[in-house]
Design goal:
This protein is α+β, with helices and mostly antiparallel strands and 182 residues long. It has 4 helices and 10 strands.
């Protein structure tokens, strides 16, 4: 029995080491200043720096850009690129249910930009910029401008969904995954 437990612990530690660099990406919606709401890290920073020791900037750039193309198949907007140094991913979130202060629930979709920068051994990911988008009332079918600040004030559950959307999007683009090994 002890051998099985030791083997299990050994396999878990090997699996944890294989997960990669321990890089963490998590942006949350917070008040960023006088009457402004936006994305920041939990400790209030506007970007996250991921470490990939031994990787050249151009290799990191190519890997991330390739994962982006794979993810979207048909890019919503072609990324703005500075070859080998940076690119801006622009797009629109999936429709999410949110209470935005109207008399009924709406579907909200936010337009976003995310800047990725590359140096040897590092990727810097700037907080998503997603201040506005569209909302469609499920009751009337009317379409309005959606503001992240309004959603932040009215519907914390929707904010959690928006944060989760960006966390999954950025992680699937920035971190190596099984699709890289073919």
């Amino acid at each position: 029995m002890k051998k099985i437990i030791v083997l299990f612990v050994l396999l878990l530690s090997i699996g944890a080491a294989a997960q990669g660099t321990g890089n963490s990406i998590h942006f949350v919606v917070k008040e960023t200043g006088k009457s402004k709401v936006g994305f920041l890290t939990e400790d209030g920073k506007q970007s996250v720096i991921l470490s990939f020791p031994g990787k050249k900037a151009n290799d990191l750039y190519t890997d991330v850009l390739l994962r982006t193309v794979r993810m979207f198949k048909s890019m919503p907007v072609a990324p703005q690129v500075i070859n080998g140094r940076a690119f801006v991913l622009s797009g629109e979130t999936d429709d999410m249910r949110a209470n935005t202060g109207l008399s009924d629930v709406s579907l909200v979709s936010l337009k976003y930009n995310i800047l990725f920068e590359f140096k040897d051994g590092k990727i810097r990911i700037h907080a998503p910029e997603a201040p506005i988008g569209t909302q469609t009332s499920l009751g009337t079918g009317s379409t309005y401008t959606a503001r992240l600040s309004t959603i932040f004030e009215k519907d914390k559950e929707a904010i959690t969904k928006i944060e989760d959307f960006f966390q999954k999007l950025i992680e699937s683009i920035a971190l190596p995954n099984s699709d890289d090994n073919w």
